[in-house]
Amino acid sequence: MTGGELVAAAKERMDPFWSVTRSQVYRELPGLAEAGYVRPGKLGPRAAQPYAITAAGKRAFRNWLTEAAGADHSRNPLVLRIGFGAHHAPGAVKQLVDDARTRHQEALAASRARVAQLKKEGGDSFLVATAEFGIAYERALLRWLDTVPTG
Amino acid sequence: MTGGELVAAAKERMDPFWSVTRSQVYRELPGLAEAGYVRPGKLGPRAAQPYAITAAGKRAFRNWLTEAAGADHSRNPLVLRIGFGAHHAPGAVKQLVDDARTRHQEALAASRARVAQLKKEGGDSFLVATAEFGIAYERALLRWLDTVPTG
DNA sequence: AAGGCCATGTAACAAGTTACATGATTAA
DNA sequence: TTAATCATGTAACTTGTTACATGGCCTT
After folding, report:
1. Among A13, A63, B76, B99, which one has the highest count of C-beta atoms within 10 angstroms of its own C-beta?
2. CB A115 within 8 A of CB A106
3. What pLDDT, in 10s, does the model give residues B69-88?
4. What b/e sequence results for B101-127 when a residue is b if at least 16 CB atoms lie within 10 Å of its CB, and e otherwise?
5. What ranges do the domains of chain B cover?
6. What's this model's pTM, rounded to 2 decimal places?
7. For domain B3-66, which CATH number applies: 3.30.70.100, 1.10.10.10, 3.30.379.10, 1.10.287.610?
8. Which residue in B66, B70, B149 is closest to A125 by CB distance?
9. Chain B residues inside the 8 Å CB shell of A96
10. Which helix (H) or strand (E) holds A73?
């Protein structure tokens, strides 16, 4: 795959709980090739450089998989601002909450659609589980939003 | 406050949904002083440099508060690994899930304790809400863990 | 075949992490 | 009073973001 294809595949697979940017991917690929984990193929249109994973790359991946998972890491600007609610102008918190509700309702719908699609395709049950994580997260957030004081 | 005090206060206030490191804080403080948002006080023991916020600093803070909240950003290495469950050795997913359950049960207990403490202190209801976000998140994650296929 | 559009890749920058050096405080 | 511990701050490095340049594709 090329850098762009990898980014698209990663987003498709990980969207609610992980992210990568194109620049990260493009930066890493030459290093991975150097290390022998991927092998560059011949250039396509637009100077697109495809790579194929090598046997060593697969080994390294499996190795990485077994490493302990490490703590998760959240950055939630909405909750951060709500925590300073006492410093807000009147009505500002309600505004924040309403906007967030709209956005997360959309995200919830997207997660549900993704689960439905994966199930229809008869896909890997672990992938379905990660998509269901998206639903669980969005539902929890929406329910929490309903409890935030908006005064 | 000094850099160390600021880090401690930030962790106390934001722990489940935001984080800062000491290095970030120490790096920013001289710049904020330069910009007139904080004023350095006299050095304490261990060359500790305290800062006080200025009127301009408070204005800048209120300004920042009203900015739109931006999307939240999660990095969850556990869900990431589970998504690749099909590539794991047998039993490995169960191991991951069991470890995670322990850790998140502890985190849930910590969140609950924090809510109880804030309520006892009669604190700011917005702060209580952010602590309750921690509970909601941990509960959702734990319930989701119970649905993950461990075969 | 010309112009707008989208995908590829690069480069400069900002934010986040890790490892280190130093100076008080505490305890043996 | 010496050694261990802990808090302060710094510096080097890694990761993540934003802004940019270029080149095929697709429509008209």
Report:
1. B76
2. no
3. 888 899 999 999 999 999 99
4. eebbeebbebbbebbeebeeeeebebb
5. 3-66, 77-145
6. 0.92
7. 1.10.10.10
8. B149
9. 69
10. strand A73-75
